[in-house]
Amino acid sequence: MRTRNNIKPKTDFGIEVRVFTAQMGMTIKELADAAGVKYATLIEAGTGRCAGHEVIPIVRQYMDSCRQKEGA
User: Fold this and answer.
1) What does the pLDDT read at residue 42?
2) Cβ–Cβ under 8 Å, residues 44 and 50
3) By three-state DSSP, how is residue 40 classified?
4) What is the pLDDT of residue 72?
5) Do the beta carbons of residue 32 and residue 20 sit within 8 Å?
6) Phi, psi for 8 (deg, rounded to 5)
7) Shortest CA distance to 37 belongs to which of 52, 51, 47?
8) pLDDT tens, 15-70?
C-alpha cells in the first residue's frame, strides 16, 4: 500500500489515540492538554518519531480513566 509522502504512517499507539479521540469527540490537542503532555510529543509518539516511553503510559492511563467514567 502506498501512502503520500507527506503522510506519516501511524504506530499502534497512534491508531489507538485516533480511535479514542474519535469515540470521545475530542481533538488530539485536547487529549494532550488533559493528559498533561506536550502536543508535539504525543504526535511524534503516534508516528514513531520518538520513543514515547514516558508519554505513552501517561496518555494510556488518562484514556483508561476516561473510559471508566464513560462506563460508570
Assistant:
1) 94
2) yes
3) helix
4) 58
5) no
6) -90, 130
7) 52
8) 999 999 999 999 999 999 999 999 999 999 998 887 788 999 999 999 999 999 88
HSE of 41, CA atoms in CB hemisphere, 13 A: 15
Q: Which residues of 40-52 are buried (b: 16+ CB within 10 A; e: fewer)?
A: ebbbbbbeeeeeb
Angle, nearest 10°, between helix axes 39-47 and 55-71?
A: 100
Helices (H) and strands (E) in the chain, counts: 4, 0
- Spatial CA neighbour of 58 closest among 40, 32, 19, 29: 32
Reading the block at residue 72, the C-alpha cell is: 460508570
How far, in Å, CA of 14 to CA of 47, rounded?
A: 6
Distances (CA, A) of 36 to 6, 29, 39, 52, 59: 28, 10, 9, 14, 8
pTM exceeds cut of 0.85: no
